[in-house]
Amino acid sequence: MKREEIFQYVKEQYGTEPEYLWKKDPDSAVLRHKNGKWYAIIMAVEKKTLGLEEDGKINILDVKCDPDLVGMIIQTYGFLPGYHMNKRHWITILLDDSVSEAKTLDFLDMSYDLIDSGK
């Protein structure tokens, strides 16, 4: 999935607009729940930083995840422990088409719901 597709989906689904908070990283955006808490972050990071072997940058999506599922999910290619986030509660999804659009949106929805419920 592409960043723009995610931004379009969350705008239609939740009325969310990306927020660009960091001058040093102007392409990174957070998606904020109506309660003010972040439910997703999209950024481009060096592949090697994530433990990938290739050079260059990759777009990633960090989402909140049920802690009981994290250990199982990160065993699947395309999913990693949350980059720059609490690795017990957040996962990183590679936006390189290794994870289907449907699955990416399912995890985005789960993150929104987890933030909504305060879990």
TrEMBL record:
It comes from the Bacteria. SUPFAM superfamilies: YjbR-like. One of its GO terms (molecular function) is DNA binding. It holds the Pfam family YjbR. Keywords: DNA-binding. The keyword DNA-binding applies. This is MmcQ/YjbR family DNA-binding protein. The lineage of its organism: Bacteria, Bacillati, Bacillota, Clostridia, Lachnospirales.
